[in-house]
Specification:
With 256 residues, the protein is α/β, with parallel strands linked by helices. The protein has one domain: TIM Barrel, CATH 3.20.20. The protein contains nine helices and ten strands. Strands 1, 2, 3, 4, 5, 6, 7, 8, 9 and 10 form a ten-stranded parallel β-sheet that branches. Helix 2 links the parallel strand 2 and strand 3.
């Protein structure tokens, strides 16, 4: 297994000094980030879909081994609520294609008010180009049913495992031959950090679900105060101790 570890976004002003050296300008933060991580989830694509030229520029700035996950725009998931998906999906993927071989999974985070409609989800997933890795993060409990799982499995899409306050808020279904997990908020201090034991539990869940030949993507979305970066380091160390192959994470002691 290759466990890709990163954060949901890289441009947070309160990371200056906590992660980025104070003398490095924000315009160079992506290059600084890629020295420490091999993947990132572009979370702000949800709010405003970047242009193809934006994606192309990012591709040119990151190393060849770097993987970019893209969160689908809210136009598809929250405004259209998955209805009439052909045009929004085409626009999303034609823009994201600017990443070339750096493009990793695409995340569909559904609104918490969107109740289960497996047929609607199936029609949306059918619009994506063949071979696209799609992770789906439903947030209404009505989705936790056999029909949802069947749709994900038939389309080769991953159920995004999500953690809020150090507990899973989704079933731990394996629906395809790769996985995706998002860490939203821990319960340790200072907020919103995760505790070491909580992260070790997640490593165990991953190690017992996927084999050595499969990929897992893990992104920390608890960005305030640089908590995401610090937890990614702890998580990576725990996964390494468990014998997993882990992509690079920063070593704070060396950086200081």
């Amino acid at each position: 297994m290759t466990l890709f570890i990163g954060t949901s976004g890289w441009q947070y002003r309160d990371w200056r000094g906590a992660f980025y050296p104070p003398d490095v300008p924000m315009r160079l933060w992506l290059e600084e980030y890629t020295e420490c991580f091999a993947t990132v989830e572009i979370n702000n694509a949800f709010y405003r879909l970047p242009t193809r030229e934006n994606f192309e520029a990012w591709r040119d700035r990151v190393p060849r081994d770097f993987v970019v996950a893209v969160k689908a725009s809210r136009y598809l998931t929250h405004i259209k609520r998955l209805k009439d998906p052909e045009e929004p999906v085409h626009r999303l993927m034609s823009h994201a294609a600017g990443l070339g071989d750096r493009l990793g999974p695409v995340l569909l985070q559904l609104p918490p008010t969107l109740r289960a409609d497996p047929d609607l989800l199936d029609a949306c997933l059918a619009c994506f180009p063949s071979g696209t890795r799609i992770a789906v993060e439903p947030r209404h409990e009505s989705w936790w049913a056999a029909k949802t799982r069947q749709v994900l499995e038939s389309r080769g899409a991953a159920l995004c495992w999500a953690d809020v306050q150090a507990r899973p808020v989704t079933p731990l279904w394996r629906t395809t031959d790769w996985g995706y997990v998002r860490f939203h908020e821990g319960r340790a201090h200072p907020w919103p950090r995760y505790g070491r034991r909580s992260l070790e539990t997640w490593v165990d869940r991953i190690a017992t679900t996927w084999s050595d030949a499969e990929d897992m993507y893990a992104y920390f979305n608890n960005d305030p105060g640089g908590a995401a970066v610090q937890d990614a380091v702890v998580f990576g160390r725990a996964a390494t101790r468990a014998g997993l192959t882990v992509t690079r994470t920063p070593e704070f002691a060396a950086r200081r």
